[in-house]
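Hi support team,

I submitted a single chain yesterday and got back a structure, but I'm not sure I'm reading the token output correctly. Could someone confirm the output below corresponds to the sequence I sent? I've pasted both exactly as they appear in my results page.

Thanks,
R.
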Amino acid sequence: MVAPTSFFNDYGGHIRILEEARTLQQLGHQVTIITYYKGNDVGGMDIRRTPALPWRADYEVGSSRHKLAFDMALFATCLWQGFKIKPDIVHGHMHEGTLIGSALARLLHIPLVMDFQGSLVGEMVDHGFLNPRGRFFRWVRRVEKFICELPDAILTSSLQARTLLVEGFGVSPERIHPLPDCVDTHSFDPQRFTLEEKLALRNNLGIPIARPIVAYLGLLAEYQGTSHLIEAAAAIKKAGIEAHFLIMGFPGQDHYKILAEKLGVSDRVTITGRIAYPDAPLYLSLGAVAVSPKMSLTEGSGKVLNYMAMGLPTIVYDSPVHREYLADLGVYVPSGDVTALAEEIGESLLRTDGSKDLGVKLRERASRKYSWIKAGETILNLYRNLSDPDDQRPGLSIVQ
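Hi R., thanks for writing in. Yes, this is the structure output for that exact sequence:
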């Protein structure tokens, strides 16, 4: 797998990479992950990293001119390690991983799979790096279209992404294989934790025992609706409804703590910063309800699956991806409508009847439709069909 990021970190696309690789290993296959030099190692994973940049040894990768140097190092490392490993498949994550992996795949005459986690253009617009009305927009869009033409097959993190690729970039439907994000329902299980464990964590966080918790776990960013959560907390406090917002994630924690103070809700909002992935289920188990006010229309929303597995009634901004995951079990709010978001959160906290049944149905849906083992079998079937439909070897070698 070619992962153009500082793998592993405790959020979003990193979790998809981790769970895909872990599942493929459980199914008996060798997976090597080529990634940037920074990031956390994961036990049992074959992770091979680029050398550090001599002028930016401590740099945490992000959107900047240094990203090009990171990707050049990743390209060289991918070729070097690829010729040593001689894999059967190259699996490129995101657009950069696909572009870099395409060179190795062509040189070794092996298939290339793209893991499409959202539109490159859409993400750049969401993050404010690209003006959709600017002169560079069409050129970036052409680059994205070119990259989407490279792989033999594309795995998409949602059905909505399939529609985007076909209608927006002219990709042949036969090359697209939807593989929605999934969840480990053994780890994300509300029954794992005792009342004593939850009370101890609540006490450590300083959250009053009688105050129901609104849980959020994910990246902190404007397109994720983080400011909207804090504004909703202010509206709920003004309405006299008891609630405490447990906002877990990074970056920009200090910025959002200042916003909470400015809006007078620092006593109703706890911003934890980064939560280690193995600790996420325990923290989510404190929630009475969960929220995802994400406003992106092109990215997945894997956090919602974690909420579902934990049996948490889930309030979301209305989007095709959220409806794909939650179906008729979600509580939907018009995207960007903070007033409606606050009202639905308040009503959900007051509506105790039926919450338990809804949580059971959400967890059952997560277990039935979003299992990583089923996803792993789907990936392997695709690999085999691309390599050799008659090849049933139990131990394919994969560079991801």
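A quick pointer for reading it: The chain has 15 helices and 14 strands. Let us know if anything else looks off.

Best,
Support desk
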